[in-house]
Each structure stands twice: as structure tokens, then as C-alpha cells.
Amino acid sequence: MQLNVTKRLTAQTHIGIIRWNRSYSSVPVSSPPQLHDADYQELYNLLQSGKTSMDMKTLSKIHSRIVTFGYGTSPSLMTSLMLKYVHRNRRSIVYKITGQVFCWSNDLVELNMIIDKLLRMENYRVAKMVFNKMPSRDVVTWNTMIGGYVRKARFEEALRLFRFMIKSNVEPDKFTFASVMNGCAKLGALKHAQWVHELLIEKRIELNFILSSALIDMYSKCSKIQTAKEIFDGVQRNNVCVWNAMISGLAVHGLALDAIKVFTKMEPKLGEAAMANISRLRSGDYVLLSNIYCSQKRWDTAQGVWEMMKKKGVRKVRGKSCFEWAGVLHPFKAGDRSHPETEEIYKMLEGLIQRTKLAGYVPTTDLVTMDVSEEEKEGNLYHHSEKLALAYGILKTTSGSEVRISKNLRICYDCHNWIKMVSRLLSRVIIVRDRIRFHQFENGLCSCGDYW
Fold first, then answer.
1. Taking the model in full, what pTM does it have?
2. Which of 52, 175, 317, 388 shows a CA-CA span of 20 to 30 A to 145?
């Protein structure tokens, strides 16, 4: 009785990758034989079931059997095999297989899939090798490479490849532009952004909500918020993504009042549209929808959003700021009174608030969307986590010394302005590391130039 493939792999341990190295070049470029379909299926199943944990000994045996059975030109088997070697970081073998890739596949769809898988596994060199050796490429091929680079934060390479695409007279499509604009946004590359936008117009690419959102986001992150606003005013706003892009852009530039105005213009039904697929919503989506209702003073509806959020088990990420003192990390949350030195901290904070108010500090109460009095809104802002952490830092450090704070979320507009003022009044260097970047406050200015 014929042994199955698994048993033969065990029995023939002497068949290794060396045999393939010597004989693979002689494999004919023809369809794999169909004499052992059961063997083919079992080999394929072995490669699929092994996931990423398959050891080299087993992998070498499978490789040898593929060649022995004449399946060395099977696209599905050889692709799966190559990806296994990528997982094992066996570069020399991967390069050898890649060198033969066109012996077993000239199908564009198949090759595009191979490139995509390689990029997702961060094997850029092999992906580029396959791309460069392809006898022909379609727009999907280019999009796969460019999108893969952007997805893995290789923005400069994505932009270089896009320029090469244009020089090669390949017509980009909507997907190409969406990826490239994302790359420009992440780099803050204004000149590139303007060139891409001009090209988009030249190619007469019709804007959809994805491209509109990408354009607004790109100009916002390239410090051209006015251009972003002009684009927002001129495009269709029938998708929540377009509104989100504009609101986020305004918030990043510290234009809190403008952000609230956009909130108030946004039809609540658009926000509700995001609720259609409730399982995909993140906490930030719920908060955004709730804020829309709050800005329109629809308090009961906003409360309903929070109750739905609670029912679905979605939790809002709570802001936390930390100050390290004497080797101990002291965490603070908004309104926190759990610290052993709470009384001293709040006394210090109240003194700082009074000094800054006398110097012109005006709390940005528009940021508070709760149905409470103006006084309560101010109180809410006074007790943000970064303010508490800074008060404790000043309490513990000597006059003129540097204070360092870290925060898990982006610092809010009100706290950013307040800390600038504190740095000037106390002649202190205050460094805040938030989720986005480092902020060095000194003499009433911030290193971010009020753009973060």
C-alpha cells in the first residue's frame, strides 16, 4: 500500500534542500503532472496547515517532495513554499525561488498576490525583485507596491515609486492617489502634496469620499488648513469620513471653535450612518457622534450614545499623564484625587490657574460639550491630567529646573496654551511627550509651533 505524503516525508529524511539546489534549474517550464493529484493536495494542505511554525527540517522535506513529484512549476505550491521560507528568514532560498518565479507563473493576478503577501510580511527586497522582473505590470501591480510601502510607513519609497509610475506612462487610478496622498500627509511633504493634487486634477480623477477625505487630511497635515477648508467646502459631504477629516484637521491646528462649528453643521444622521455597522465602531467614533449631539444641545440623544457604547462593551480610552519623581512614576487622571499629596497638588494648581488668568489665560470652554454651566466647564478644564501632573512636578522640583511629563493621548488645546503660559511665568522648560510627539515649552512658546 502506498505510503501517504506525511509518512514518506518522515521516511526519507535524507532528501533535503541540497537536492533541489542542484536540480531545480532543470525542471521543465510546463504544467505540473496530474498523475499524483492526491499527493498534490496533501502537499498543499501541509503547507497551509503548518502556519508559520513549521521547522526547517519539515519544510526542506516538503520542498524535496514537491520537486520529486514534478510540482516545481505549480504556482500555488511554490508560492506557499516561498512564503514559508520568508517566515523562516531563509533569504538565499527565497531569492533562488524568486529567480525562478516566472518559470511557474506569468499570471498578473497571481504575481500581484505574491507581491502583496511579501509586502505584508515586510520582505520588501524580494517583493521589489519580483516587481522589477515582471515582464508586464498593470495598475494593480503599481498600487500593490505603493500601497504596501505606505501601509508599512515607507513613505519616501512610495512617493519615489509613484514618480517612476508617472514617468513610465502608467495611468494612476483612485486607489493610487489615495495611497500617495496618505504618504504625503504622513511626511508633511507640502511640495509633493501640491504636485499630487495638480496631477489629480490633470488626470480628471473624479473625487469620491475616500479621495476627498485624503485631500483634506493631506493639506491639514502639511500645515495648509485653509486649503483643507476650501476643499471641504467644495466637495460632497455625504460621508462621515469627510467630516472626520475636517474636524481632525481643525483640532490638530488648535482651531477648537472652528471644529465645534463643523460639528454643529454636521447632520446627526450622517453620524448615525456610522452606527449602521456597530461592531466595527471604535470608542473614538462613539465619542465623535456623542459630541455632535452635545454641540446641538441634544443631551438625551447624546446620553443614548454613551449607553449604547456601554452596552456594547466599548470603553473610552481615558487620558493619563505621568510625572517621574525619585524613581517613582506618579500617574494622574482628570479630576484625580487618589494621590497621597492631593491637597498640596490642588493648592499648587489653583495658584497656577490664578496666575495664568491674571496673565491673560482664558479657558477654552467650547471644548467641553457637556450640558453644564460655564463655571463647571472651566472646572472641568482646570483638572485635566496634564495640569495635575505639571502642578505636582512644580511642587517637587526646584525653581528653574526642567519638568518632564508623559501622556497616553494627545495633549488638548486648552492645556497646550496653558502650559505655554506657565513656562513663561515660571521661567521653566516643560517637556510633554504625548501620543503624537514631544512638546518643549519654553518662554511661552512650544517647539511644535502650535501644530501637533
1. 0.56
2. 52
